[in-house]
TrEMBL record:
Its EC number is 3.4.21.-. GO terms for molecular function: peptidase activity. This is S1C family serine protease. The keyword Amino-acid biosynthesis does not apply. InterPro entries: Chloro_Bact_Ser_Proteases, PDZ, PDZ_sf, Peptidase_S1_PA, Peptidase_S1C. It is an enzyme of class 3 (hydrolase). Keywords: Hydrolase, Membrane, Protease, Serine protease, Transmembrane, Transmembrane helix. The chain crosses the membrane at residues 24-45. The lineage of its organism: Bacteria, Bacillati, Bacillota, Bacilli, Bacillales. Residues 292-397 form the PDZ domain. It comes from the Bacteria. One of its GO terms (biological process) is proteolysis. Pfam families: PDZ_2 (PF13180), Trypsin_2 (PF13365).
Length: 413
């Protein structure tokens, strides 16, 4: 039955000395299932799976105590076998891929902790891209390549997009990697990942594009859309590293795995490089990235839910709650009057028997029909703070329109 999933736990401490922890997001993959889930959303939705043993995890290390049009390293792969392609990409790019180590300030009970991930050079000015969860709250990090270590200054970190840029005084001999586009990818395409899994530096793995446009929810409730799914083996420490296409262009930034064993089982995810290209200059200049916020929680409607809750439609997004003082609440949207009882219910409770069924149902945005939270969040994520959107809703069986001025995510205020 339906389940509202909002529990996010950490991986257990392990490895040398147990100095650091790796963040874990409990299952939050994708849409299109026949079961009915409850989703917690702020921009739109957190996408969750009930009754699954897998975990979706960021890819930091194990516990250890430019420009998109640059002409950087680009191996020639024409007319070669897959194994030769991987070798050529590796040899041409490895010198521009770094191990990034961030040390916490020691405020944790266990004392200072290390996060170790991967980064890669994106321009000729010494700017290195990585994941925000690799650098954490650190202002400076250690950036190493081979026998060379650099002091890295964190220019900016966008936690909701999980992107960060670190600046180093890189020698002119280092070539930035060539950035491509995830828009050219197709399922089945060869991809290559280079990074530092389990601190095994300069490791390479390869696989194929297993899926495109996946949606992954974060602990904040924000949804990352357009993710690349790959079976190229990824493990803790690969975070922030490049995912290459067969032409040796960076098409993604490795960031998550889904696994019941906290290691690779062939389901990994990368942020499309297009998002970094879009935000690159803002991140390099140290600007904060603002994200649009709708301020609701909801769940996808289907025929069984409609029957059980006596709803007038069998598709749409049922609004369980609106955030007090948020954009949707300010616009007059209404959640289910029994939502507070759902919040206090056990995970095994059937939401259909708890919810009253008097919440708004969103069926359209700006004249376009929407049937799922995933579709709603994709639209909202592309909008700007302060933008006014028109929601088509059903309230008490009647179609209405509500204009909502999108706010700014509370975490970025």
């Amino acid at each position: 039955m339906g389940r509202r999933w909002n529990e996010f736990d950490d991986w257990p401490e392990q490895g040398r000395g147990g100095k650091r922890r790796a963040s874990v997001l409990w299952p939050s993959i994708v849409a299109g299932l026949a079961v009915f889930y409850v989703f917690g959303i702020w921009t739109g939705a957190a996408i969750a799976h009930p009754s699954r043993s897998n975990v979706v995890a960021y890819l930091p290390s194990p516990n250890t105590g430019g420009s998109s049009t640059n002409s950087g390293a680009n191996p020639s792969t024409s007319g070669t076998s897959d194994s030769n392609v991987v070798t050529n990409i590796y040899n041409a790019t490895k010198d521009s891929i770094f191990t990034i180590t961030a040390v916490s300030d020691g405020s944790a009970k266990s004392g200072p902790q290390e996060d170790v991930g991967t980064g890669f050079l994106i321009d000729n000015k010494g700017d290195v891209a990585t994941n925000a969860h690799v650098v954490g709250t650190s202002k400076t990090v250690n950036v190493a390549q081979g026998n060379h270590t650099y002091k890295g200054t964190v220019l900016s970190a966008d936690t909701l997009d999980d992107l960060a840029v670190v600046h180093i005084n890189a020698p002119a001999s280092l070539q930035p990697l060539q950035l491509g586009s995830a828009k050219t990818l197709q399922p089945g395409d060869l991809v290559v990942a280079i990074g530092n899994p389990f601190e095994l530096t300069e490791s390479v793995s390869s696989g194929i594009v297993s899926g495109l446009n996946r949606s992954m929810s974060e602990s904040s409730g924000h949804v990352m859309n357009g993710m690349i799914q790959t079976d190229a083996p990824l493990n803790p420490g690969n975070s922030g590293g490049p995912l290459f296409n067969a032409a040796g262009q960076v098409v993604g930034i490795n960031t998550m795995i889904e696994s019941p064993i906290e290691g690779s089982i062939g389901v990994g995810f990368a942020i499309p490089i297009d998002r970094l290209v879009q935000l690159e200059q803002q991140l390099i200049s140290g600007q904060s990235i603002n994200h649009a916020w709708l301020g609701i929680e909801g769940m996808d409607v289907d025929s069984l839910m409609a029957k059980e809750m006596h709803l007038s439609v069998s598709t749409g997004i049922y609004v369980t709650e609106v955030t007090k003082g948020g954009p949707a609440a300010t616009a007059g949207m209404k959640g289910d009057s029994n939502a507070s009882k759902l919040d206090s219910a056990s995970d095994s409770a059937d939401p259909f028997k708890i919810l009253k069924g008097d919440g708004d149902i969103i069926v359209g945005v700006d004249g376009k029909s929407v049937a799922t939270i995933e579709a709603l969040t994709q639209i909202v994520n592309q909008d700007s703070v302060g933008q006014v959107i028109t929601l088509e809703i059903i309230r008490n069986g009647q179609h209405q329109t509500v204009k909502v001025k999108l706010g700014k995510w509370p975490s970025s205020q």
